[in-house]
Amino acid sequence: MDIKCPGTELRSLKVEIIKCPNCGYEIEIFSDEMKAKCPKCKTVVFRENIPSCVSWCKYAKECIGEEKWRQIKDLIETQQQKLDIKERLLSEMMNYFGSDLKRIEHARKVLLYAEEILKDYPQANREVVVISAILHDVGTKEAEKKYGYTNEELQAKEGAIVAKNILQKLGIKKEIIDEVCNIIASHHTPAEINTLNFKILWDADWIVNLKDKVVINDKEKLKETIDKIFMTDVGKNLAKKIYL
Questions:
Q1: Nearest residue to 135 (alpha-carbon basis) of 170, 104, 157, 112
Q2: Per-residue burial over 167-186, b = 16 or more CB atoms within 10 Å of its CB, e = otherwise
Q3: 32 with 56: CB under 8 angstroms?
Q4: To the nearest whole percent, how much of the chain has pLDDT over 70?
Q5: What is the 3-state secondary structure (H, E, C) of 101-152?
Q6: String of b and e for 134-146 (b: at least 16 CB within 10 Å)?
Q7: E strands of the chain, at which residues?
Q8: Confidence of residue 131 (pLDDT cuts 50, 70, 90)
Q9: Of 42 and 143, which is predicted with more confidence?
Q10: Quick one: how many helices (H) and strands (E) in the chain?
């Protein structure tokens, strides 16, 4: 005999209202959904808990037994912190910068190039690079707030503090947080750190910044600059492909 779980019935689902962290729009999300897209600004917004019948269905414990129910509950809590960390961080970053679309777009571009470079470096720590790319400039806003202006030194100093708070809230492992904060605190001073993860972030950031910091009309000089500044062969080749 087929047994139908009563929790799968539409009437058992619940609708919650969550606010978009980017624009404040109130979004409807069902109890079996993990995320929803804001109709107003298109930001992907995540619920606090992973959708699972164990999380929201009143029949779950009775259905699968208390021991199994508790095991799955513990597993959900562990996996929650690992789920779609890139999207969760992008949402956090956008919420932090608010209406500062220039810095949001900069972070997204750096992430795009970092992921492109990562394809050729499987030995790199993807999690560290992706997180660093998304959060590398978060210190600018805090520096302006504290000191009324920002520069590379203040941006790096304040950025490590802001990033640490964001990552601790998301439950990221301490060793990941430590390396990310080290990269952020050093991403304008390459002599301080020499890891592959740092080099990928450095090159991705420079690909985005090159047109604003270097005269790109002189192709010969630009080629020399790229060869001198960039730290990975893949980053160099990508920059040359874009600008030369």
A1: 104
A2: beebebeeebbebbbbbbbb
A3: yes
A4: 82
A5: HHHHHHHHHHHHHHHHHHCCCCCCCHHHHHHHHHHCCCHHHHHHHHHCCCCH
A6: bbbbbbbbbbeee
A7: 15-19, 26-30, 35-37, 44-46
A8: very high
A9: 143
A10: 12, 4
d(CA 9, CA 212): 56
Directed axis angle between helix 152-169 and helix 174-186, to 10°? 160
Rounded CA separation 208/117 (Å): 13
Tokens of 34: 């993990």
- What's the gap between Cα 152 and its chain centre? 21
Report pLDDT for 165. Answer: 93
Q: Which residues contact 207 (CB under 8 A, 6 or more apart)?
A: 110, 113, 235, 238, 239, 242
**For residue 117, is pLDDT > 60?**
yes
For 200, the token pair is 């990928």
Residues in contact with 97: Cβ distance below 8 Å, sequence separation at least 6, in sequence order: 103, 104, 107, 138, 141
Residue closest to 127 by CA, chosen among 188, 191, 187, 201: 201
